[in-house]
Amino acid sequence: MRSTEAWHGASDRSAPALRNIPEEVHRALRARATTHGRSTEAEVRSILEQAARPEGRVKLGSLLASIAREAGGLNDVEAEAINRVRDKTPADPLRFE
Predict the structure, then answer these.
(1) Most buried in the list 9, 34, 44, 71, measured by CB within 10 Å?
(2) How far out from the chain centre does Cα 85 lie?
């Protein structure tokens, strides 16, 4: 069984390098990408995004708001007012360098 030595994303953003991917896995990724009409790199990004951010996941802010509502701290109007003004920009990940 041959392995793909390295696969690097072409993006300027920091991206993990996938090494020692078994050839049959790489072949399956290429086939899956073709089926979805995208590049292998785009297919891998899609798979990683689905794994890291699955549909239906409960987001922390939504969970905290529901806890507050149940505790009587916020009603729907107050929660909506907070949602309108809160910063929805994703936080930058922590760096341990």
Answers:
(1) 44
(2) 24
